[in-house]
């Protein structure tokens, strides 16, 4: 049985992602771990609140998480557990993933704000730190199945077997059709794309419906958005490239940009290169 971790702070976007994940879990018999990170308010810190206050808050948060897990189990008939943590978000999420042997993570994404654009948020940090697939669900999107996947593929970035395994898992699990969509400044040769992906090596494509589309453009994000509009996929898949310090000064992650702008769920697949 696959295990998915659903991150929640009980905001509107987190609640929406939780029910999206629960619907997916019911369809595929997944186990859900509800992960929540409790934080201490500035007012409580300034007031030097007592240990009893913090203990009471922990019990309150634990009860809220337990109730949500019980609600999901009742509504969707899925195995549901919960994990309450405090501290650094990424570190605690990684601890939860290791403890529960997580297969992938689900997170909700709020509407883009100026603060998010300047500072980033937990979703964008997770994209570049977590070494498991992350499914990012925009607010107000309901789960209706995954029948068509758009895989935005960059031939100039290194692709690992672990990343391809994760992509093929989703294709096979949902019996989905996949379009491999490549955008570059120069029009790639079709055989070059096949060789770069090594798509046929180690996989049986007889039962997979797939197609390729390559276009020439310097505006990658706009091209992906237009392809989404034209093809109406249920899921966009991208593999974020890990820039070094110098590269990061001149490049913004296209995966992070699409996480902000995207109107459909985005599956971010890690390269898993240390």
From TrEMBL:
<comment type="similarity">
    <text>Belongs to the universal stress protein A family.</text>
</comment>
<dbReference type="InterPro" id="IPR006015">
    <property type="entry name" value="Universal_stress_UspA"/>
</dbReference>
<protein>
    <submittedName>
        <fullName>Nucleotide-binding universal stress UspA family protein</fullName>
    </submittedName>
</protein>
<dbReference type="InterPro" id="IPR006016">
    <property type="entry name" value="UspA"/>
</dbReference>
<dbReference type="Pfam" id="PF00582">
    <property type="entry name" value="Usp"/>
</dbReference>
<feature type="domain" description="UspA">
    <location>
        <begin position="1"/>
        <end position="138"/>
    </location>
</feature>
